[in-house]
Amino acid sequence: MTTEDLNDKLLNVFKDCPYKGKREDCTFLKMQDMEIDARIDFLNDMDEDEKVTKWQKHLECLMNALAR
């Protein structure tokens, strides 16, 4: 996965989230109320390892929600 792919996935994280970022332990709680431009800046401030970690946590949460 390239940085651009990861950024695209992170920018669209709430589209597939059944909770729409409303859980207290949401990985992307800070991004919830941001405009798209602000989200891009927020993601650009993260290093690649942090992005991957947050993406993995999001996927784990999504899979748990779907399993219920």
Outline the fold blueprint.
Blueprint: H1 3-11, H2 36-44, H3 48-67
Helix pairs in contact: 1-3
Task: Summarize the structure in words.
The structure is a single chain. The chain is mostly helical and 68 residues long. It is 56% helix and 0% strand. The chain has one domain. It is built from three helices and no strands. Helix 1 crosses helix 3. The model has no long low-confidence stretch (mean pLDDT 84).
What is the gist of this entry?
With 68 residues, this protein is mainly alpha-helical. The chain is built from three helices and no strands.
Distance between the amino and carboxyl termini: 29 Å
Overall strand count: 0
Share in β-strands: under 5%
Query: What structural class do you assign from the helix and strand content?
Result: mainly alpha
Query: What is Rg?
Result: 11 Å
Helical fraction equals 55-70%
Features:
globular, 0% strand, mainly alpha, single chain, 68 residues
